[in-house]
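In this notebook, the sequence line spells out the residues, with the fold written below as integer tokens. This is how one looks.
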Amino acid sequence: MSPLSILAPIAVAATLAAPPPVAANASLYAQVQQSEGHYHEGELGAKYLLIEQALKCSCGCGLDVHSCQYQMQCGTSPVWSARIRQQLEQGLDEETIKAGFVAEFGATVLMAPPAEGFNLVGYLLPAFAILSAGMLVGLVIRGGAARHQILEPVDSVSPEDQARLTAELKKLEEAESPDW
């Protein structure tokens, strides 16, 4: 019996047991689309999409409701999406719908925290850091330019300065001379 004849039934069994190809996932995606409907067209659809993108799904994925529903396919986002759609069809505005979710689940349900209280630090700190870094770079550059203006070439040296310079150079030579 050849090794190929032994491996052939294993390969056939592995092929039959393999998960279905991507087309099966596409049909599952189509079923989700058909079951819930895709209502992101027109003025109501635009509002619907904005609200879905402003709310974070609570399943733990960290995505907004719209992305989670069509990428992660969790059990939370379709329910929230249907709730948003129903409230929009009842005539509620975006802020009221978001406020309802915040009242029920807390401010962590928002993708971007409200600009109030301690959250202002998160909004203002990056701008403050960029401005501070720019000022620091400006001061360093300005300080370096000022130093170059102070240093000017010397045309003549007084006899006292010449003697002091010679003495200092002699000390330096002695300090750096080899010990051998």
The first helix runs from residue 3 to 17. Confidence is low (pLDDT under 50) at residues 11-36. The CA atoms of residues 69 and 92 lie 22 Å apart. Residues 3-109 form one domain.
